[in-house]
Amino acid sequence: MRSFALSVLREPPFTGAQHDDTEAVARESEDWAQRLGLINNGQRLRRADAAGLASRACPQAPRDRLRLLSDLISWLFVMDDACDEDGLGSDPTRLAPTVAALLDVLDRHGEPGAAPACGPLGPALADLCRRVRVYRRPAVLLRFTAAMREYLLALLWEAANREHDRVPPVHEYVQMRRHTGGVFPSLTLTDLALDGFPPAERRADPQWAALDLLAANLICWCNDVFSYRKEHRTGPDAHNLVTVLSAETGDETAGMRAAAARFNHELGTYLTTESDLLAQHGEAVRPALATRRNWIRATYDWSLAAERYA
Amino acid sequence: MRSFALSVLREPPFTGAQHDDTEAVARESEDWAQRLGLINNGQRLRRADAAGLASRACPQAPRDRLRLLSDLISWLFVMDDACDEDGLGSDPTRLAPTVAALLDVLDRHGEPGAAPACGPLGPALADLCRRVRVYRRPAVLLRFTAAMREYLLALLWEAANREHDRVPPVHEYVQMRRHTGGVFPSLTLTDLALDGFPPAERRADPQWAALDLLAANLICWCNDVFSYRKEHRTGPDAHNLVTVLSAETGDETAGMRAAAARFNHELGTYLTTESDLLAQHGEAVRPALATRRNWIRATYDWSLAAERYA
Questions:
Q1: What's the domain count of chain B?
Q2: Count of H-run helices and E-run strands, chain A
Q3: Which of A156, A161, A164, A202 to mutate to test the interface with B (most CBs of B within 10 A)?
Q4: Could you write out the three-class secondary structure of B50-98?
Q5: Is A143 domain-assigned?
Q6: Measured between alpha carbons, how far is B279 from B288 in angstroms, rounded to an integer?
Q7: Which of A103, A169, A202 sits opposite B175 (nearest CB)?
Q8: What averages of pLDDT result for each successive group of 10 residues across chain B (310 residues)?
Q9: Residue B122: closest CA among B94, B98, B146
Q10: Is residue A281 part of a domain?
Q11: Is B204's CB within 8 Å of A164's CB?
């Protein structure tokens, strides 16, 4: 899908950059995942390139905060693999105990507690929460745990669809994809890394809320278009924008074009919304806007790079 | 279960009271539900007595804020009925479009938008969000929408269990019940009503987080013990503390006693945690503690009263 994606997706007009410490952080994240038992060998995680994505999302962050984001993305990749691979993600009643145990971990907000009964994912998530807690930004910690809760609960939706071989309607998919994609916890830790976390009064501003949804859509859809063929090779995944649009139009080529058209249109809306916010709030919102720009550009560049190894 | 519940549950040692405007608010909430098409006639909602629960939860609140809570509880009762009755709640793939449409409503944070495709529940939820927005407390609004999102997503877990006739393990049930019970959105609007909303730095405090979980457990479990027989008459519901404990012990009487013992033990822990918080933070936390005390006592008294009509 690389050449197709390249030919149809509008390139996000934001500067792309990568953190100087990418390689070192990649090694550290891999060590972390191995030490906590998330992976047996690093090969697969290396190919997924969590650090590459994180380092594009916050090219100027302090090293420890970049590392935290890179570890979160690694964790999300491992969770994704666990769902894809041993059938956990296609049986909501098998997935539920793991989800509940991970929700227990989130309820501790990074404080020590009894070991959760869900294998290495639990202690690793507890470690992430503990490290978010260290920055003493309670609003960031609460936002992070809330976003992770929504991500975990939304996985049950995916599992029910897989169990029923159900392709969700486009409108439903668009809403749920924002949660299953793990975008909001990732944006939260990037806001932390770049000191761009918007205060509550801004986040409840209708324009701000709209911008966050637009950014999340762009990140998820870009990923969907780039990864479609790859996912398709191992059996079509219902949870891809191309799939749900193809099901609605009855035609894969039309679905692919419709997905690209949605991305391009959403990018236009994003740029307008961003200008309006800047005009209204001025420099105060720049760090938070940078987080979102970085993520949109990062997903695009990382998807291109990841394709090389696909 | 009334006499059993009365004989085994420790009475919450908090003063119970009811708002002077209960009856008027009950009529207004019923009118609201009827005007928005949530109900055809008020009889059933009247029996459920949303206003009675709300007015016990905030006996000293300004009338408009009590009304907002009463309308939210009415909305939750109607959603609950919709799930119970026409099979929506026992088929995750049928429930998912409604959940997604309601999540769309929450994403607007009370701003006007296109009519959601989920019947009267959508516009009614939009109305609730709009009215929370009016108080210009963005942190409260964000907390409310986040708590509602978790509630809605957790309904998909219930639906998957019902579809599979699955009784969840106790540990999983305890975690998920806090979300499916709609406790957190209700606490949030009660904090708003009593001006007790704790700031982020307090809510991420480990003791505070613990208190919130304890309060939510007490509210849910009290409701479970009182309603067990009633639910049991129309076929056992897997989503009741007595059911999950009975399944684990293999014995209904043991399950009932174990549920009561859990409640009583949790109440003791709650009282200790509350004292510690008061000693540490002083008068500043009193309004937020009152919200939680009120809710625990309100659930107990309301369950007793509701039983009279059961």
A1: 1
A2: 15, 0
A3: A156
A4: HHHHHHHHCCCCCHHHHHHHHHHHHHHHHHHHHHHHCCHHHCHHHHHHH
A5: yes
A6: 14
A7: A103
A8: 82 96 96 95 85 96 97 96 86 96 96 85 97 95 97 98 96 98 97 87 88 97 89 72 95 95 98 94 88 96 75
A9: B98
A10: yes
A11: no
User: How many Å from the N-terminal Cα to the C-terminal Cα in chain A?
Assistant: 10
| pTM summary value | 0.96
Which CATH number do you get for residue B85? 1.10.600.10
Domain-located, residue B68: yes
Q: Are B285 and B207 in contact (CB under 8 A)?
A: no
Kindly report the length of chain B: 310
SS3 call for B119: coil
Q: d(Cα B269, Cα B273) in Å, to the nearest integer?
A: 6
CA dist B251 and B259 (Å) reads 12
Is B17 part of any domain? no
Predicted local distance difference test score (pLDDT) of residue A236: 64
The contacts of residue B259 (CB under 8 Å, 6+ apart) are B221, B224, B225, B228, B241, B242, B245
| Average pLDDT along chain A | 92
Closest partner residue to B150 (CB to CB) among A100, A149, A203 is A149
DSSP state of A11: P
Q: What is the pLDDT of residues A160-200, one digit of tens each?
A: 999 999 999 999 999 999 999 999 999 999 999 998 888 88
ipTM of the complex: 0.96
Let me know if A45 is exposed, middle or buried by CB neighbors in 10 A (0-12, 13-18, 19+): buried
- Residues of chain B contacting residue A118, judged by C-beta atoms under 8 Å apart: none
pLDDT of residue A13: 97
**Range of A212's domain?**
2-10+23-309
Least Cα distance to B19 among B48, B61, B68, B65 occurs for B61
All residues at 6 or more sequence positions from A75 whose CB lies less than 8 Å from its CB, including other chains:
A33, A38, A121, A124, A125, A128
Q: Give the closest-approach CA distance of A72 to chain B in angstroms.
A: 20
Q: How many residues are given for chain A?
A: 310
- Judge whether A67 and A29 are in contact, CB under 8 Å: yes
Task: Give the gap in angstroms from C-alpha A141 to the nearest C-alpha of chain B.
Answer: 7
3-state class percentages of chain A: helix first, strand second, coil last, to nearest 5? 75, 0, 25
Please check whether residue B187 is in contact with residue B212, taking contact to mean a CB–CB distance below 8 angstroms. Answer: yes
